[in-house]
Design brief:
heterodimer, A: alpha+beta, 4-stranded mixed beta sheet, about 45% helix, elongated, B: about 260 residues, alpha/beta, 7 helices, 6 strands
Chain lengths: ~170, ~260
């Protein structure tokens, strides 16, 4: 139940946060880049209680390669500059279960040629969860959708929005 | 009810106006540093090319997803950005150099069992110093794969629930749309796992029109990459070589 409430809260808070922060990388700099690498590190604020649970371990193992692939795909066509850059995704919060998944990460953009940090997108958040009430949770637990894949896709979309923002 | 209808009409108008005013994103047509191609070497083409004109037909613009007025400047901008990325674009201070008129042929579209093939071809007319070093045709083919949809049970379960709820007088429209959003997310996740290459990929859009657009954009980008790669093959001397006198041509051992 707590997880469900947390997801509902994130649904409200995330767009508000996205609007509030100015883009740390100016448009003219962004246009000189292309995203060559996506790296992932773990820096969880708090280790979950079920960290050694096989299901949780399996979710994490599934998550790592897939989020890298999905983010790389989301940025494969744009930006279309000449300088190779990397996204360093530092995962600070992560939870996953049949009923939903949630993550928060700080994303650092690094120019590969000289290692310069071009900007940091803090607290990029994404989740997957049914908002169809108890019935939605029931259907979700029956159907078992790909919570990691959907959350990763949502994360890539949120990051894309922050990266493209001209505010 | 009438007020609601007016609100929807105004919202639709606003969205349409916004879409028309938005510039066409040239990035997907641009050859970024991601593409393996040599950078310009010393010679007439290095920082020596300008794009005078970029043309395409109305049907090609529509296949690329917008009106001619929006796509044509984007096509020129994409080619200029591609040349800049590899060191070929002339700066404003550059005298002489090569001027290019590029035009995009009608796309060749062929559907197959897995998706759609599109061939894109640029015709290039060059004039100025080094014009002979520029290829006259650059082309590429792209295969867009149709999306897989494997989450039928999510949609089916949603409909069963909706029908059940309707029987007891509950409108479950929000629930249905939420379940469909989950199903679409699942589809995207499944398709993200599929292998892809430079000349083949899964269309992010469902349907023949969207798939053709994706393939056409990708093929146009690859045709520009073909031009960049041909420029890098050095059909012309890449730099002026110093004159060699006859006695310098002998191997060192013989010269001694």
């Amino acid at each position: 139940m707590l997880r469900f409430l947390m997801i509902a809260l994130m649904a409200i808070v995330t767009p508000v946060c996205a609007m509030a922060k100015p883009n740390p990388i100016k448009a003219d700099v962004r246009q000189t880049l292309f995203i060559k690498d996506v790296e992932l590190t773990w820096a969880l604020k708090k280790e979950p209680k079920d960290a050694s649970d096989p299901a949780y371990v399996a979710y994490r193992a599934d998550f790592e390669p897939r989020i890298k692939q999905i983010v790389a795909d989301a940025f494969s066509k744009s930006p279309a500059g000449a300088d190779a850059a990397a996204f360093r995704i530092e995962v600070t919060e992560f939870s996953a279960a049949t009923t939903g998944a949630f993550m928060s990460a700080n994303v650092t953009v690094v120019r590969i040629s000289d290692g310069a940090v071009l900007g940091v997108y803090p607290k990029v958040r994404a989740f997957q969860g049914s908002n169809g009430g108890l019935l939605g949770v029931l259907v979700q637990s029956m159907v078992k959708p790909d919570v990691i894949g959907i959350m990763s896709g949502n994360f890539a979309a949120v990051l894309r929005g922050k990266f493209d923002s001209n505010k | 009810m009438r007020r609601l209808g007016t609100a929807f009409s105004l919202a639709a108008l606003a969205i349409t106006a916004q879409a028309d005013a938005a510039t066409y994103n040239a990035d997907p047509l641009t050859v970024s540093g991601r593409f393996e191609a040599p950078r310009a070497v010393d010679g007439p083409l290095k920082a020596g090319i300008r794009i005078s004109n970029a043309k395409l037909g109305v049907p090609e613009a529509e296949i690329l997803g917008a009106t001619l007025e929006r796509v044509q400047p984007a096509l020129k901008g994409a080619m200029e950005a591609s040349l800049r990325n590899f060191g070929y674009l002339a700066g404003p201070e550059r005298a002489g150099g090569v001027d290019l008129d590029i035009s995009l042929d009608p796309f060749e579209v062929t559907a197959d069992a897995e998706g759609v093939f599109v061939v894109a071809r640029y015709r290039i007319a060059a004039r100025g110093d080094g014009a002979g070093c520029v290829p006259v045709v650059a082309e590429a083919r792209y295969h867009a794969l149709a999306q897989l949809q494997n989450t039928g049970k999510q949609r089916a379960a949603a409909w069963v629930a909706v029908i059940g709820l309707a029987a007891v007088g509950v409108n479950a429209g929000v629930f249905l749309s939420d379940q469909y959003a989950t199903a679409r997310g699942s589809d995207r996740a499944v398709n993200a796992r599929r292998e892809r290459s430079e000349s083949e990929g899964v269309s992010p859009v469902v349907g023949q029109k969207g798939m053709t657009q994706f393939a056409a954009v990708s093929a146009t980008q690859l045709a520009a990459a073909d031009l960049i790669r041909q420029l890098g093959k050095g059909a012309c001397p890449t730099q002026a070589l110093p004159e060699i006198s006859p006695d310098q041509t002998a191997p060192p051992s013989q010269a001694n």
